[in-house]
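FORM 7B - TANDEM STRUCTURE REPORT

SECTION 1: FIRST PROTEIN
SEQUENCE AND TOKENS:
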Amino acid sequence: MTSPTIQVRAITKSFGDLAVLRGVDLDVAPGSILALLGSNGAGKTTLVRILATLVKADGGTASVNGFDVAEQPEEVRESISLTGQFAAVDEVLTGRENLMLVARLRHLKNPDAVADRLLERFALAEAGKRKAATYSGGMRRRLDIAMSLIGDPPVIFLDEPTTGLDPQARIEVWQTISQLAAGGTTVLLTTQYLDEAEQLADRIAILHEGTIIQNGTLAELKRLLPPAEVEYVEKQPSLEDVFLALVGAPREPRQPRDERKELP
């Protein structure tokens, strides 16, 4: 069997008296997308920061691309890219200039060619000469992800990448993320949007109160709840149903889609 690209074992982290991570175990297979779901404060960003060598864990072990995050931080950093909740784009520069700047900082040859290739790959070629300040939210996020891929890192961490985006921009980013995995990039995606996890993830892990309480494919998670029956129509549980049932969170009543036919 192929070794996981990301492997986490019994990771713990506290900030003062607040225990954020309480023994997290997680594997991410090569070239796959794992969605890490959790409420605000569940510890998603803390785990990503540990894996990106920005924060040290209190206990446990973790490796990324075969390198131990505590013992080999430089090798880990060379293997990854991290995109946060807000696009790290210089709005004064054009899209092309943003890409060239990062290519030069990474000491790559032919930064012009690198920028042109990524603009084409992310459907930004026509906007490449425009200042990033004129970009839509989806375009800016695509540029941000393109910048993070300079140097072809095998692993990318996306920490709530569609926060604040409109529905169309979210779809554009979803397409970009799917293309990354199709090209062999391993993606760890944190999100609060359950539909995002449903659309993108090969596997879904639910982080609650500092531990992974469930981890599986969408189909496996849905099988955790019995199908609901409304008269003669069987309704399969959604990922939202599974998530809320597992974390024990209250939810507002919602009107189900009426799929019944009127009976004479």
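SECTION 2: SECOND PROTEIN
SEQUENCE AND TOKENS:
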Amino acid sequence: MITVRIRFRKVGEAAYISLLDLQRVFHRILKRSGLPVYYTQGFNPHIYLSFACPLSLGQESICECCEVKTEAENQDFSRWREALQPLMPKGIEITRIGPAVNKVGEIDHAEYTVTVPASAAPALEEYNAASSAPVFKKSKRGKKELDLKEYLPHLDYSPCEEGLQFSFTLPCGSGEAPNLNPALLLGYLQQKSEIPPWLCSVMRTQLYTKNNEEFC
């Protein structure tokens, strides 16, 4: 049994495809492709399919991935890409398909690039000058207060065509540190300044392991 990792970009309109709908899309496309993917056993067999660290609705990524399994050996993964890409919705582009190297549980942190309007500059300066930046993280167990400054002590931003842009890393995955969504930072900045949410964008650019190696 081989675990196959499908790497893809999820940008533009595709950022508004929810995880549940994305799962449905991939299930249908894999069935239509005729590729030798593994089906679970039992009364209602379905394709084994899992996504690593799903994004929040509206966020883009150039490093998304999902996994399927196959019992077929010596696969030509270029043929997989040729079979799948024409069936993908607009905004989803397959970048690489091959045997999984790392386990999903090895994901430790992710890198993001955020774009905000130029009017957010005072809020960014206020954040950098603050000694703490308390936010509430929601979970199934309720709300938990966190200090963003523990994870993002300083934001170095620079001008771009859309306004201002900055990059940072946050804990991601199933490690000891809490899985933090960059929307927590945007929410904090929007509280400090009237920043229109529709002028802000989040792009996940890379996933890393605990050893700071690219997840692949």
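SECTION 3: OBSERVATIONS ON SECOND PROTEIN
Strands lie at 2-10, 50-51, 60-70, 92-99, 107-116, 134-139, 142-147, 158-160, 163-171, 201-209.
The chain has two domains: 2-100, 105-209.

SECTION 4: SIGNATURE
Preparer initials: ____
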